[in-house]
Specification:
The chain is mainly α. Helices cover 72% and strands 0% of the residues. The protein is built from 19 helices and no strands. The protein is globular. The protein starts with 22 loop residues before the first helix and ends with a helix.
Length: 425
């Protein structure tokens, strides 16, 4: 049974330990909300270190082929689709914390396995050479191992994603979610930004070069943070969710049938727009790091950025989301959430169009001001578009019925397929 902190018996629940308490900077005393903060911190560090571009660069370095990186991203999307939909379905049928624990075990298995194989790789040279001979059409032995390991992590994350989002929504009062989710997104992007800065420090200490060893170390460090994230996810508890205070607007007993139908249509519109957006986004976002890394002097399009420069740019883009998220929160209180969301999308897309216009004009060169213009547009595009996340998520969870929240959250698996699958296109 879900209890509010004010319900009888809620006070008997075990309090959150002081070293995990996050009341000060998230604004909620609910243990599930606090656990979500720590879960987000570890996952964001993992993404910032290994999955925001380093893995794509590593795969390209192993194969020398951007096309194979695209195919790998397509496989990752497929691996996240079915587990995500299954996890969302079972989350609304059974206890959500049980589904989250299954996800945690998959993530632990995938993380430990991938790290172990990469670390012990040099001790199995003869086996690696034999496998390379059979795998020469798709890449090297290490390419196959990384693809397999990352696929397991995508599947593990997808299994529990819908459940964690539904538990969080059920632990927050309807109407107050945007403030919490905005603060959570700011923390998330702070950690996203910290990841590339850590990468820059590691690579700078290793002669600032794109070497296989340097990239492998970054992947291992990033994957490692999935383990504490999985351990924290064991702390989510369905019994600590709120009761009626977290019901969706479509659950309201005072709303008429026509009004409820209108409420239920809102997440449908958001889902369709998200699918279309992710399909287009996957064709660009996945390849930004590779484009920034490619050197025009080698006969390919790119900016030729050094490793530390690329990581600093990535960190700056993610850190700029923090103030823009706050701007979005302020604007939405005056003009409405959906209106603010639309305006921020148009500003971000305009910056992406500007990057394309510079490319068609032949300005992807090594000249400083040309490269600076491309990077400024990239920073502006990322800041505005990423800042819309809390708005969209709060609208979605406020309008869907409480009993179907996990299923709607599992739509992330479908949009994720479009995001990764379009990279293969």
């Amino acid at each position: 049974m879900c209890l509010s902190p004010h319900d009888e018996g809620a006070g008997d629940m075990a309090p959150c330990p002081w070293y995990l308490s996050a009341v000060g900077f998230v604004g909620s005393s609910n243990k599930n909300a606090q656990m979500m903060v720590w879960y987000t911190i570890f996952v964001a560090l993992s993404v910032g270190l290994a999955f925001s571009g380093v893995t794509a660069i590593y795969l390209q370095h192993l194969t020398g082929s951007t096309s194979k990186v695209g195919y790998a991203e397509g496989v990752f999307g497929v691996m996240g689709l079915v587990p995500g939909l299954v996890g969302g379905y079972f989350s609304d049928k059974f206890r959500r914390d049980s589904v989250i624990r299954c996800s945690a075990w998959v993530n632990i298995f995938g993380s430990v396995g991938l790290i172990a194989v990469l670390v012990l790789d040099h001790s199995a040279a003869s086996v690696r050479d034999v496998l390379d001979a059979y795998l020469n059409n798709i890449g090297t032995w290490k390419f196959a191992v990384v693809c397999a390991g990352v696929s397991v992590l995508y599947a593990g994350n997808s299994i529990g994603y819908a459940s964690t989002q539904a538990v969080l929504a059920d632990s927050l009062t309807t109407g107050d979610r945007q403030g919490f989710m905005t603060r959570l997104r700011m923390i998330q992007n702070l950690c996203y930004g910290a990841g590339p800065l850590i990468c820059a420090a590691i690579v700078a200490a290793c002669h600032d070069e794109w070497t296989e060893t340097n990239l492998m170390v970054l992947v291992i460090v990033g994957v490692f943070f999935r383990i504490p994230a999985a351990l924290v996810s064991f702390c989510f508890n369905d019994d600590l969710c709120l009761a009626g205070e977290s019901d969706g607007m479509a659950d309201s007993s005072t709303a008429g049938d026509a009004e409820k139908a209108r409420y239920r249509s809102v997440p449908i519109y958001y889902f369709v727009s998200d699918v279309l957006w992710c399909f287009g986004s996957g064709m660009t976002v996945k390849f930004f790091p590779i484009f920034f890394k490619n050197d025009p002097s080698d006969g390919v399009e790119g900016l030729g950025l050094a490793p530390t420069t690329l990581f600093v740019v990535s960190a700056a883009a993610l850190l700029l989301v923090l103030p823009m998220s706050h701007v979005g929160l302020r604007l939405s209180t005056h003009f409405g959430r959906i209106q603010t969301d639309i305006v921020m999308w148009y500003v971000g897309i305009s910056s992406l169009a500007g990057m394309c216009a510079l490319g068609y004009a032949g300005h992807y060169t090594t000249r400083f001001w040309d490269r600076a213009a491309v990077l400024v547009l990239y920073l502006n595009r990322t800041a505005w578009l990423q800042a819309t996340g809390p708005i969209q998520q709060s609208v979605m969870m406020d309008f869907v019925e409480k009993k179907t929240r996990a299923r709607w959250a599992s739509a992330y698996a479908i949009t994720g397929l479009g995001w990764c699958g379009s990279a293969a296109v």
